[in-house]
Amino acid sequence: MSTAKKRTRETVTLEFPDNALLSGLSGPHQKHFVRLEQKLSVRIAMRGNLVAIEGQACERAASVLRALYARLEAGETIGTAELDSQVRFAGEASGHDMADALGSPAVRTWAAHTTRARSPAQATYLDLMRTHPLVFGVGPAGTGKTYLAAAFGAHLLYERRVERLILSRPALEAGERLGFLPGDLKEKIDPYLRPLYDALFGVMGEACLKLMEQGIIEVAPLAFMRGRTLSHAFVILDEAQNCTMAQMKMFLTRLGEDSRMVVTGDPSQSDLPGGKPEGLDQALSILSGIEGAAVARFSEKDVVRHALVTRIVAAYNAADKGAGVNRTLRRAAQKGED
Fold first, then answer.
1. What contacts 19, CB < 8 A, 6 or more positions away?
2. Nearest to 230 by CA among 241, 245, 220, 240
3. pLDDT digits (tens, 9 = 90+) for 236-246
4. Helix-helix angle 120-131:145-158, to 10 degrees
5. Model-level pTM?
6. Closest among 20, 128, 28 to 75, alpha carbons compared
7. In angstroms, rounded to a whole number, what is the distance separating the alpha carbons of residues 230 and 165?
8. How far is Cα 74 from Cα 77, in angstroms, rounded to an integer?
9. Which domains can be identified in the chain, with CATH numbers?
10. 101 touches 89 (CB < 8 A)
11. Burial of 37 (0-12, 13-18, 19+ CB in 10 A)
């Protein structure tokens, strides 16, 4: 692990004992160092196995490099996404201990696959899944709600703490219905379930195919959950903003012995008539504060997809707020006229 050799108010020098790992830390043509310089407005110079960091954010940059080096020591690979997430951790460490500032523990999802939170909000989400049988993950697209839920479910399956992994979502999206699609029932349903398949492949690789054939992993529409009791399983309901109140109650009451459940949704993207996430809103209101249930909330700053997605989400949120203000002003004007 690295050690600090000398320190002034705005300069930190780190020593990394393994030159091979240091090469991975700096990246090809030192592109990781260059990116860190751009994001934190610091200057980084490498000489031998010493790395000097200069600038007001030198301590933050040093914590990022220490954490990334620790990942390399653990046999993980790092890239731009890992660097960006570590910068996010180091910058949002208020309210967390130093271990949180340096990142979160990796979740092993299969023999050669691990997943790690990329923001403090994601780390909190994982912590809640470890300690609560029912967790709601609520926030905008791109914040990793479904991916992390699938990763944690795969982790529990890998450790044999559950017997099955069940993923479900409503077969309702973008104003379409199953009847509008060609093919038999399976062909109609598969396009709606594709994001869940993608999440499974992302966290488990080809291993998920065999487990799906064995029935250990099941991906099914929400309608197929009625009448079942899901015991000894990790159950995920994705796109919950498209659930009616009756559907949400039906799903939540499927929870069986030694099972855990995660419900994910983005209230701003409901495809229900009127555009309101009725089932999700009602569940969050009714179940708020009850023992065993918890809510992880994400915001636009937690988006971990392309940087442009963060700006897109922020722009839409600003537009929605502006529309809300205009509606309020119009109502006030109408009342004044009355």
1. 48, 49
2. 220
3. 999 999 999 99
4. 40
5. 0.77
6. 20
7. 10
8. 9
9. 3-101 (3.30.1370.10), 107-305 (3.40.50.300)
10. yes
11. middle
